[in-house]
Amino acid sequence: MASPVASSIVWLRDDLRLDDNPALSHAVELGLPLTVVYILDEESPGIRPLGGAARWWLHHSLTALAGALAEAGSALILRRGPASRVIRDLAAETGAKHLLWNRRYGGPERSLDADIKAWAAENGIEAASFQANLLFEPWTITTGSGGPYKVFTPYWRACTASGEPRPPVDAPATLPSPAAAGSKNPAGSDTLAEWSLLPVLPDWSGGLAATWEPGEAGAHNRLEDFLDGPAQEYGTGRDIPGVEGTSRLSPHLRFGEISPFRVWHELRRHFPREATPDVGIFRSELGWREFCWQLLYANPRLATRNYRPDFDRFEWQQPTAAELGAWQQGRTGYPLVDAGMRQLWQTGWMHNRVRMAAASFLVKNLLADWRLGEAWFWDTLVDADAASNPANWQWVAGSGADASPYFRIFNPVTQSKKFDAEGRYLREFIPEIAHMDRRAIHEPWKEPDVQGYPAPVVGLRESRERALATYQKLRADEPGREAPGGPEISG
């Protein structure tokens, strides 16, 4: 058998795109036969398997990516197993002399990548990694003492003062032809059907399919729609769950179907020199995503360990099965919480304002450990990523960086009256109360003719007082600190 011809491997992970993909662009510059591989790795130490909604998205995103690669003259190889083993096997099959990928920032992922890079060096393979999925890599933005930032505002100020993010690189028109194993046979690939990423018995994905267009084309369509509409009033529209006021780019960014560099510079092109403050607010939301990744980089166990160690003493209460089930199923008796949880189940996504209210209800009104909510969102969100999901849950719980103050307890009635005054969002997801007028719909338990919709699982006042007492006990237990009274604000 002839020796394999020298070739390159591009290992895709959370960067399922051709546009602004530095690893792929570098492979084009090398000009060698190219293997593009995606590895479904659920076995390497510390790697967190995807939740159900994310698996659905991955199936369709990979389908779209395979089509785009084929149009550019390449192919997508699918392999399943520990990435270290798969990469070694694929390098041997294809005679790879270059191994290229875009960087990841979670602890287990960085360890895995470092091990593979060391193996490659020992075996005469040039391994190179690139910045593709964060505008500002964690080690480039540090405090004056060289440590990570713990508060968002000075972090984002430091980011924006560090210079304009690089411009995106257009997708290559053509790609090198696929590498051949033994110079004869193309590297073998699994099929997506073999991975069983889609739900069956039952298939609960109908609402996801009606809502989303996974893949790079869908990401760019979503960005274009946002720039032509909601972006111009983002500062106010983002808080109104009953309208299309947000970008809904989060799942596309999570899977790397569009790069943050492309989003950043398209904003610049559409709105030169920050012509509207709404664009600056949206940029800061991109910044919060970056901040979450910096937190994970410095705290690899962010999904399982309190960012603030004093919360290890917090007296979480185990919710009853009925309480937890009511929250998960959108049957708490509080319409805003329930509409959000039903939107999550139906579409794999929830409006951000409602996410905060639903999360606050679980961790403060039910006093449930934030990790219960984080795990549920991990399984049901199409945009759940390893940084934003735990960081945001810890923010609401008060255990995280730059956290919501302990006395901030979102009142779901106040929130729905303020941000969904006409009940448009509530009616969309809770048909049992859709007939109610704009005043009654926010507090249906006060009406005598409600049928099919549950009574509240807890009282807001009583559960708020319990939460405040528990948080204040934690503060009182801190050495040398007395518990302050604190305002009982309700959002």
TrEMBL record:
Residues 6-135 form the Photolyase/cryptochrome alpha/beta domain. Its cofactor is FAD. InterPro entries: Crypto/Photolyase_FAD-like_sf, Crypto/Photolyase_N_sf, Cryptochr/Photolyase_FAD-bd, Cryptochrome/DNA_photolyase_1, DNA_photolyase_1_CS_C, DNA_photolyase_N, Rossmann-like_a/b/a_fold. It comes from the Bacteria. Keywords: Chromophore, FAD, Flavoprotein. PROSITE patterns: DNA_PHOTOLYASES_1_1, PHR_CRY_ALPHA_BETA. Residues 163-188, 472-491 are annotated as: Disordered. Belongs to the DNA photolyase family. This is DNA photolyase family protein.
